[in-house]
Amino acid sequence: MDTYLIEKDFKNLLKEQASYREAIMLAHWDMSTKIPKNGIEQRSEVVGFLSEKLHQIETSEKMKYFIDVLKDSTENEVMKKTIEECEETYERNRKIPNQEFKEYVMLQTKSESIWQEARENADFSLFQPYLEQLVDYNKKFANYWGYEDNIYDALLHNFEPGVTTKTLDHVFPELRKSLTSLMDKINGSTHKPDASVLTGHFPKKDQEAFSVEVLKRMGYNFTSGRLDETVHPFAIALNRNDVRVTTRYDEKDFRMAVFGTIHEGGHALYEQNINSELINTPLATGTSMGIHESQSLFWENFVGRNKAFWESHYELFKSHAPAHFQNVPLDDFYRAVNEVKPSFIRIEADELTYPLHIMIRYELEKALINGEIKVKDLPGLWNEKMNNYLGITPPSDKEGVLQDIHWSGGDFGYFPSYALGYMYSAQLHNTLTQEINLDEIITKGDFNQLRNWLTKNVHQYGKMKKPLEIIEDVTKEKLNPEHLVNYLMKKYSSIYQL
Amino acid sequence: MDTYLIEKDFKNLLKEQASYREAIMLAHWDMSTKIPKNGIEQRSEVVGFLSEKLHQIETSEKMKYFIDVLKDSTENEVMKKTIEECEETYERNRKIPNQEFKEYVMLQTKSESIWQEARENADFSLFQPYLEQLVDYNKKFANYWGYEDNIYDALLHNFEPGVTTKTLDHVFPELRKSLTSLMDKINGSTHKPDASVLTGHFPKKDQEAFSVEVLKRMGYNFTSGRLDETVHPFAIALNRNDVRVTTRYDEKDFRMAVFGTIHEGGHALYEQNINSELINTPLATGTSMGIHESQSLFWENFVGRNKAFWESHYELFKSHAPAHFQNVPLDDFYRAVNEVKPSFIRIEADELTYPLHIMIRYELEKALINGEIKVKDLPGLWNEKMNNYLGITPPSDKEGVLQDIHWSGGDFGYFPSYALGYMYSAQLHNTLTQEINLDEIITKGDFNQLRNWLTKNVHQYGKMKKPLEIIEDVTKEKLNPEHLVNYLMKKYSSIYQL
């Protein structure tokens, strides 16, 4: 059979994978937004079944055959990268014995529901035995996959290929030092914002109307997407022509919905603007968790929490908001939405304390995987670090070590990508502002230039480029946490008159 | 391997089928309710792919093995019926050569979009060549499947197993004669209802509030379902714990939403109340289109269009309805929602003219499949029959032969089940009213007794019983159109004072 025909068969197999992926994504979206309660149990099994079918294709002999035959014979760049991606998935998955993989999948499902119970009851001991097993499996898998310096690197690779413990241990302490020193200054400031002006009854439908308007202005395409309500906001791509966002409405505090929607809108713009040539390949999605987060955080922080944004959107906001906002001056409003205040819950943290939450989780999971600490000691260690880094101690494990779902799904190595995404976004911001007067276009409320810049430099590539390749190609330098520090210093010095 | 282990493997295969089915149903539901426009194209391919996978299992060697081994060795009644169902599906599907099946699936997809275009443009000639091919394939398939008397029986079997052309040709003319004679009398009546009292601006959210309330009273379980809005209302069962209904709101005329919701609610009650032992088998769904329709029509007509229903629900209705209904007396209202008036569109037809729409379609498709008429002559023949049976001629093919989607999907033999369902419902009604004072419980607004009766006699069985088996077991007689005629005679004699 000649290469052309083999490529054709290979593309059919890729399309099958894409079909399974869409069915799985839809099942997840529905489970988080629309499913009636009694449908959940059966649905979990459907998702498990479809995921297994996808996994079977990824690790099939057929896949191996295509990889071997096409690897060196194709000239097409997309095909080359596709093969690379498939090969990596094939190799990594094949290294895990089938029996262990099945046991692990069962453990994941079970652990998630146990974690939920443990969190609700603020009882870590319920979750502990499951977490111990999850850590053990991840250590085993990390050894199967292999690593150079640190076993944790093997896990990091799943979420941020190319980034290692060495990189993180270089940038994180530097970042922490700067953030802590900045926070100390802020604590001593006598010019603090008053966030109490932000609360008050704000009906859901008005928050929704404003959120939809902002999404439209960002360039989110509602003909290829939709906005729904969930407990935990997310963006999900069924394919680039069907990218859905969700948000959460708190009628007492609009910040969750407004900044949450902008954040998820940033993720969605990434997926909607991937090059259409990549459709039906495994490259048709964001290249890593970190780069994805760089896009959502760019919109949330550099746009949404920017004074220029409120200069152009405060009137629109007030037209939807409760009457008392009429008496809140723009400057007070802007400073209030940027209040820095150590808090227990990561996803509710402000721009400045956010990275500290991530570092705590990173340090703990790295130590866990390296066998330096024990699962049973996590609650104590978590509280100790919270106290050291943020100066506060969670009232219970519910607001502490049990708050996030990730570990219950066995996702170790995921957290750093949140802080990385933040640093990426600041580094991209630094380059972008040399080319575009960002504040000016934001003040005008015209986001086309910004979105086009992001599409040209980031979105379009999907997985054609690795995370650090994107950062280095665009910014002409390696990962550099100084840009984030500089941005925060400048912004918060002004807000707190430091 | 002993039978126990083989049964276990077989059950796993059935579960895989159920998973594919749920994924397909969810994809369909989403396509009709939530999907953004640009997602449709890709989604159609996903549905096609998943359907093919399901079809592969149904016709697999593995399936054949299980059928052969388990057929005579199992004592369990559910397992026996499951095997029978699987065998029938296997045999029927295997009779169609793979290549022809694939071509046919492609033709179906294409034809549906062409039909939509043809309908929008009221241009039958666009659709004609596709319909010709669809008829040819159905003739071929009918011959593969085999039949005794009439080739059309082989198609009828797909939707109403056990019912034949012979039965239909016996009951339909009888029914038509009675209906036509009743209509003649109605036309001559001087005591006609005034339906104009029913119209006026009725906001969607108020119609929705009333519809939801009625569904709840019917016993539709919202913890295992949900109500959404669509262009074409439907009920869909992902599994018995996730049965969703949709409705359409016309703000000028509430009848579409209210009677449509009750109708779909009737379908949904059937699926929600199938015995839980049948979960994950192919028996866990309605036994035929006709029996399904008997349930939806029972609720729509014998409950929803019943005077007793409005005696107990008119106050509730008025609390949601526009103010002018305060001035419409109950009796005028009741008579207005039961107005008989020949109309072009089947799904908007009244109780009395509805079966005539079905008979026209039945007569035409039977003649088509028997080669007695040609596709190109359909528009003329349709209009001729409309004129003969209903005394009106559609202004264009859009309101005529092109109005229904079924033929574009190759569904020949489907239409009779609508009229059969109607006759079934009247026959069930006749038996039920001998055991239960239906008007009394409806007047009380307590539907539990009714729903329990339907569950006990119909719902619970799923596909454990064939359609006519259900009718004969419950009513102790064969299909008898007299019950429908008697019901209509009595009801409309009173409304029109004949």
TrEMBL record, chains A, B:
Pfam families: Peptidase_M32. It comes from Virgibacillus byunsanensis. The keyword Protease applies. It catalyses: Release of a C-terminal amino acid with broad specificity, except for -Pro. The keyword S-adenosyl-L-methionine does not apply. Keywords: Carboxypeptidase, Hydrolase, Metal-binding, Metalloprotease, Protease. One of its GO terms (molecular function) is carboxypeptidase activity. This is Metal-dependent carboxypeptidase. SUPFAM superfamilies: Metalloproteases ('zincins'), catalytic domain (SSF55486). Belongs to the peptidase M32 family. Its EC number is 3.4.17.19. Broad specificity carboxypetidase that releases amino acids sequentially from the C-terminus, including neutral, aromatic, polar and basic residues.
